[in-house]
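>> Question from a student workshop board

For tomorrow's exercise we were told to take the sequence and the ligand below, predict the bound structure, and bring the output to class. My setup keeps failing. Could a helper post the expected result so I can at least see what it should look like? The ligand is IDC.
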Amino acid sequence: MRKFKILAGACLCALLLTGTASAAFPDVRPGTWYAEAVTEMEEAGILHGYPDGTFRPGASITAAQFVAVTARCAGLSPVPGQTDHWAAGQLQAALQAGWYDWDEIPPTGERFDKPISRQLAVKILMRALLPEVRGDYNTESRKMQDFSRLEGRYYEPVLAAYAAGIVKGDDQGNFNPQKGLTRAEACILFQKAMKLSGAGEGGNTPAPEDPRPQVPQPSETARGGVSENGWLQVKGTQLCNERGEAVVLRGMSTHGMQWYGQYANSRSIRNTADWGANLFRVAMYTGEGGYLSSPDSIKKKVMDAVDAAITSDLYVIIDWHILSDGNPMSHVEEAKAFFSEMAARYGDSPAVLYEICNEPNGNVTWEGDVKPYAQAVIPVIRERAPKSVILVGSPTWSQDIHMAARSPLEGENLMYTLHFYAGTHGADLRRRIDDVLAAGAPVFVSEWGTSRADGSGGVFLKEAGEWLDFLDRRGISWANWSLCDKGETSAALRPGTSPNSAWSRENLSESGQFVFSRFAD
Ligand code: IDC
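>> Workshop helper replied:
Here is what the output should look like for this input. Compare the format with yours to find the bug.
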């Protein structure tokens, strides 16, 4: 247990009632994202519950409560206050220490019991506990979608807090500067700031794990095609270019080559590149009348598409699109032969990525099926394509990336694919991505749609926007399903669109207009 410097005997109402039993609060459920932090802070004597024994994690924290707890964290002694409010002494000391200005929380008390804004809370915390920390304006302000709503007097501490990793935006990347914060959220802030400031003493045992994973996020990502970025490499969880700079690939996936191969011709690929994509995915169904039924003709279509993508300066994924054949092991020999041939042909091209199993599904497991499959196919690719990026799926239609992260493959330049459909999948799957990144496994969204998971319904553009913002912030690459004119909402082209001429906005479906607008930054 860490021990924090605390003021002995300070009697602070509500949040800080001393002498309360340190047993878990009945309203702090174990396993919630804040439970560990609350327990740690409570055990350290920083926080206590209300007299009725509750902690009230969802209640807004007031200015007085926030300042009083911060004072405890920082070891700031109270001085005589101007009112008989329970926290007047702490507030007066904090004001004199310069943690905030007179007008922000007037010492006359009228705002003491009002919810404190997030921007002011962060300022107080940073000044009290981490006064030396600075954040680079360009890098940090870009992390806040709503940076324009932040008042100028809070720039410095809020940018510093972002730089230190103390605050992260909400799911949309907003900081919400004027909003209040809950007692649970505040508790996480205190805990993080305490850890960073070293205000704690003792420390013989390691600090408990942060309940919110620290997710690697690049501050900047390169764009552009193959000629600009060269060979790709995976560093940590991030896809990088030849120079080691974070890079993001965004583009389209074809529909099945056996059905809509016409939109994988050179003109359609060039059109996609002209709209700003730097990635193209060639989805070669194995079943459903695809490669396993007509290997020679389908393979030729695939190679023509890959060649055309390379000509258009795009990165290109060769996708072994298992779907009805849910277990990749059922055709592992065919996969080895196919990828051996592809690697022999493209192994010296920096443009080509190999996706070895689109979506394992049905009665398959990572340990029993997908991992052994990957361990059989990857070496075959590596013989001829020693440094190309290889993308690996996981059970449940490439959603079980956490299984892969728990038992990762050995080797360089490997990434795990995550597939989502905006009308079906949401915050839970995004959270899984964060967990997996925090565990050190690289993620590539090689297929996603604006529709439901059946390729239809919607379109769900608001949800899709949330997803793409999330991916952008983490520097995650993506390919959208799909470049075809089929009468399903996920199709990017309006029915009847010619694969042989340029495409205007009118040729794009509602989904296509949205997706194409997100290729470039
Ligand atoms: C869908 C197509 C649809 C086709 C169906 C079966 O959109 O026209 O009839 O496959 O072949 C996936 C798969 C992808 C699916 C897509 C939408 O990788 O092949 O395409 N989807 O259902 N995973 C989740 C969704």
